[in-house]
Amino acid sequence: MIRVEDLVFDYPGFRALDGVTFAIEPHSITALVGPNGAGKTTLLNCMAGLALPAHGHVYLDAIDVHRVPRQAHARMGYLSDFFGLYAELTVARCLDYRARAQAIPSARRAAAVQRAAERLGLSDRLKQRAGELSRGLRQRLAIAQAIVHEPAVILLDEPASGLDPEARFGLAAVLRGLKDEGMTLVVSSHILAELEDYSTHLLVMEQGRILEHRALDGTVAPGGARRFELTLAEPRSDLSAVLTSIGVGEVLVEGPMARFVATGDAAAQAALLRRLIEAGLPVASFAAAKSDLQDAYLTLLKDNRARGHALPPPAAAPTAPAARP
């Protein structure tokens, strides 16, 4: 869906992106995370075709975003960290204005506005002025504007910034819904616990480089196996031996809790639970293990810094991004 190849971007005296390369899978939500100054916003600007890199390419399918930006923008939605709305326009007029800017034909424009409003839960606010909306609803309107033309890809820079917990919960549901409808999302945020609720992939940056890019579903182990958590009503000294005898692998026991890896579909998992009970284990809970995004992220940064992988300052960065011939 999206390919970024050897992207380099320089500010005067500072290299913001240093050979960034990765690919985004379709129908996914990628969490773009990293410390302040890691290059996240610069990367999103380059991916959106709003900033010209000194070197490298961004492709949306077969479209070179920087060579034919209008074609790319027809299939892409973008929401910056600091977005603006026309406060005196109604929600309907804001969406209609964006639909016109995206060259949606007049015969389809009303339906596009209605569809975007429905997706973001704004159908009952169409006649309300944008300036009268709450912070959370303004955020929804900004996202609705970004998707009014039915883009294949959406880039969101800190979309939950300034939202209260209830609004963040609602936003997470909206983003999951957009993915389920077939859109591909890249979301930059510092709220790791929130990202874990809806993201499918993790992309970690530090000092302009990619530290890690992987699927975020921590329940999947190599070879298609899955990781599980088992909790007993009371500790069992023979828990590890019992689990090993049942045929699971990578057993780790901590008191009444155990983690292990097993293979098979839903039917096989049901059979596994039955064997655990038949083995006499007082099972209190049994479920697929969840990844801990925050712990994984902090550990990754700590390990990277311990290995001394911090970027040296650029020897001679150009004063402005070099334009392609």
Short description:
34% of the residues lie in helices and 26% in strands. The protein has helices at 40-47, 69-73, 91-101, 106-119, 135-147, 165-180, 192-198, 239-246, 266-278, 293-306, and strands at residues 2-11, 14-24, 29-33, 55-60, 63-64, 76-79, 153-157, 184-188, 201-206, 209-215, 226-232, 249-254, 257-262, 283-288.
In percent terms, what proportion of residues is strand? 25-35%
CATH class of the domain at 2-75 and 151-217 and 293-306: Alpha Beta
Q: Which structural category do the helix and sheet elements fall into?
A: alpha/beta
Major sheet: arrangement of strands: 6-7-8-3-9-10
- In helices, the fraction of residues equals 25-40%
Q: What is the mean pLDDT?
A: 87
Terminus-to-terminus distance: 26 Å
Total helices: the number is 10
3D shape: globular
Domain ABC transporter: 2-232
Keywords: ATP-binding, Nucleotide-binding, Transport
Family: Belongs to the ABC transporter superfamily.
InterPro entries: AAA+_ATPase, ABC_transporter-like_ATP-bd, P-loop_NTPase
